[in-house]
Write a structure and sequence with these properties.
Elements lengths: L13 E2 L9 H7 L9 H18 L5 E6 L2 H12 L5 E6 L2 H12 L3 E6 L8 H8 L7 E5 L1 E2 L4 E2 L2 H10 L3 E5 L11 H4 L3 E3 L12 E6 L1 H8 L12 H8 L11 H17 L1 H21 L15 E5 L6 H12 L1 E2 L1 E2 L8 E5 L7 H17 L8 H10 L4
Parallel strand pairs: 1-12, 3-4, 3-5, 5-8, 8-9
Antiparallel strand pairs: 2-10, 6-7, 9-10, 11-14, 13-14
Helix pairs in contact: 1-10, 2-10, 5-6, 11-13, 11-14, 12-13, 13-14
Bound molecules: pyridoxal-5'-phosphate.
């Protein structure tokens, strides 16, 4: 029998990389619910529940709040193509791989992109952004990645929002890695366009990108001079299917939306505050453990992301060898570096379903063993003790 005719049994991996993260079993069960038609009144009820719960998770009252069909990148595309028109100026605050991607998508919208670069591992610099804003007579939008997954940096979102608003520009925020794990307060911060992804801190598989548009962004969308360049991501059409009209646009990914509904229920049952606290606490324990192993954290102190910890690969250690050993012997995935930090850092995710002390201990102990085998000197058990101290509130 050819291999492709054999049943595929997925190994039960612990996904502690940069995403996807493991999925809550309740979400998987919800996804196997029998299908409904995409215009079925019962499915419309499910869509309404999803919109309502997304507003709670984004902390917004925005009317236009829906999941886009597609992964986080679909959210990026949708955010930019709906509010930008050829000839506009977009200022992109960039300090990692996903900031570069936003700038690239912006350029494909036919807009002038002014990129403000900060070195990877550091937070974006509000003073540099302010200086760039002053160079342009009119900036249509400023975009920022809240949680830069390529470096493990949590950017100073409120400072950037303030600059964007003072210059009367829209503020576009990527929360693919923060939504559901770190505070995302769309209304409080005055975010005009905000999008996320399902596969990180929301405990769902990849495939949907929740997005929300504030009144200013919706006004810009409704008063465009040119049609949105993407038919599939045109929010004026999509909002007709998700809003009052229920007019067919494309066949909604029904099972994914069942899954998202359950994932959001799980998040809200736990409570946002508790969830943020859990992510912060477990990340602090992981960081303490890694430092006790003698490893150097990559992201600048004070701007470290609770959902994803970046750490430098120590001298003399081969990145790939360690990650392969973790995968093959410990059934555990962690991420490597992207672009300029490929081979130089590891990215360890504690996102949603995975942000628990057991996973912190498991990873530290596996890493300690592997590093020792590779000739790296570690004081046995010190990292676990350091993590335990943090979790016990002793530091
Ligand atoms: C911050 C950020 N933005 C956007 C994306 C793109 O999402 P996707 O790979 O789901 O298309 C990612 C993916 O990891 C991300 O981390």
């Amino acid at each position: 029998m050819p291999k492709y005719m054999e049943e595929f049994n997925s190994p039960a991996r612990l996904l502690m990389g940069a995403g996807p993260s493991n999925v809550n079993p309740r979400v998987l069960r919800a996804m196997s619910t029998p299908l409904l038609g995409h215009l079925d009144p019962d499915f419309i009820g499910v869509m309404d529940d999803v919109k309502e719960m997304l507003r709670l998770v984004f902390q917004t009252t925005n009317n236009l709040t829906i999941p886009i069909s597609g992964t986080g990148t679909a959210g990026m595309e949708a955010a930019l193509v709906n509010v930008l028109e050829p000839g506009d100026t977009l200022v992109a605050a960039v300090n990692g791989y996903f900031g570069v991607r936003l700038a690239d998508i912006g350029a494909r919208c036919g807009v002038k992109v002014a990129q403000v670069d900060t070195p990877w591992g550091e937070p974006v610099d509000p003073a540099a952004l302010e200086a760039e804003m002053r160079k342009h007579p009119r900036v249509k939008a400023v975009c920022l990645v809240h949680a830069e997954t390529s470096t493990g940096v949590l950017n100073p979102v409120e400072a950037v929002a303030e600059i964007a608003h003072r210059h009367d520009a829209l503020f576009i925020l990527d929360t693919v890695t923060s939504l559901g794990g770190v505070e995302v307060a769309v209304d409080k911060w005055g975010v005009d366009v905000c999008y996320g992804g399902t596969q990180k801190c929301l405990g769902c598989p990849p495939g949907l990108a929740p997005i929300t548009l504030g009144p200013k962004a919706e006004y810009v969308l409704r008063h465009r001079k040119t049609p949105v360049q993407s038919w599939y991501f045109d929010l004026s059409l999509l909002s007709s299917y998700w809003g009052e009209n229920r007019a067919y646009h494309h066949t909604a990914p029904i099972s994914m939306i069942f899954g998202l509904r359950e994932g959001l229920r799980v998040v809200l049952e736990e409570g946002l505050e508790h969830r943020y606290q859990r992510h912060a606490c477990n990340a602090a324990a992981l960081r303490a453990g890694l430092e006790a192993l003698g490893l150097e954290l990559f992201a600048k102190d004070g701007y470290r992301l609770p959902c994803l910890t970046s750490v430098r690969v120590p001298n003399g250690i081969t990145d790939g060898k360690v990650r392969t050993a973790l995968l093959r012997r410990y059934n555990t995935e962690i991420g490597g570096g992207l672009g300029p930090v490929a081979g130089k850092i590891w990215r360890i995710g504690l996102m949603g379903e995975n942000s628990y002390p057991t996973n912190v201990f498991h990873l530290l102990s596996a890493l300690e063993t592997i590093l020792q085998e590779e000739g790296y000197e570690v004081a046995q058990g010190r990292s676990l003790a350091a993590a335990q101290k943090v979790l016990a509130g002793e530091t």
